[in-house]
Predict the structure.
Amino acid sequence: MSIPSYTAEELLGALVNREDFILLDVRNSKDYDRFKIEGPYPIDMLNIVYYDFQELEDECVPLVPEGRKIRIVCAKESSAKYVAGVLSDCGYNDVAYLEGGIRTWGNLLSPVKAGTGPNYEVYQFRRPGKASLSYVLESGREMFVFDPSKNVAFYQQFAKDHGCTITRTFETHRQADYISGSDRLRRDAGAEIVAPQPDFDVARFPYTAVSDGDVFAFSDGGPKVRAIHTPGHTPGSTSYLIDDRYLISGDAVFLLSIGRPDLGGKAEEWSRLLFKTMTEKIIKWDRSLIVLPGHYMDWREAKNQVFADTLENVIENNAEIYSVRDEATFFQFIKKNMRSQPDEYARIREINAGLLEVDEEEADVMDLGKNECAASAAKAA
């Protein structure tokens, strides 16, 4: 009997549309606790380990409610397919397994239009498995990509579908939580990498160093992109302002938090940089700017499935952070937020500078897991 499967894209659609089903995760409890599938609404989930289905089938099967749609996920696919077969043999009618396993969910990109102008469109590429966000700016037959994930084939297909060529890829900073696709886009598509020198001074691939105030344009008109140095999360952190309207803020400004300055092991030093960025730049910017962050903490931050808000609302919703007026108090807030970072972060930084190469399977494993880049009053509490 053939067991049906479903894709990560179909899973996201089911979550967004609030379809009624049980998500059965058969990975071991350690991996399950480290990284769960999340969506915009609560998910009815079970974690029953694959090996228990093998050894204790008579005990495990009754734990799965009958008469419900069952969607099964595992690490690579085969375990979920096995459990789907067991349940099907036991009379469960609507059972399917996730194609490619949890990694396909981790790599999934879901684009949504986040802004428009007279001759351009801004797309937000949501990555629900990482709670991270990348962006595409389209004008004419060109595309600029901002903070791409390693799933570069998706950006390339998106460009092809829109009749465009990817000419530039912008890095807001050297990422620690996920593997960047910029160097792959340089090699595969000939895109120019634009990146802040303080973060990429050790990089082994060619890039164009960006400085505060630099302006980038498309070859045939279109909106201007202005770089704004916003250090703190990293020394080189740079935001990009599109058409004086849309601010791609990387990890400098989040909707319900602010970027952690402790991930590089220099918490106090980088905290001073972040405090200066906050008090001398962010709170003085035009409050009508639309903030497009690099990450989110929770789907509730989205409006109509887009993670964006005015700077005025961002500052108001983070009043406990933005009201701080002295460096010492700000650093105390940061210290309350300092959590151990995943072990993979140090190696990911090396990969993102071209200092280390890993195969695709290892890259997938390293890249799994929700980001830990935010410092927020909520997390401190």
Q: What stands out?
A: Residues 377-381 have pLDDT under 50 and may be disordered. The domain at 5-104 is CATH 3.40.250.10 (Oxidized Rhodanese; domain 1). The first strand starts at residue 5 and ends at 6. The CA atoms of residues 177 and 371 lie 6 Å apart.
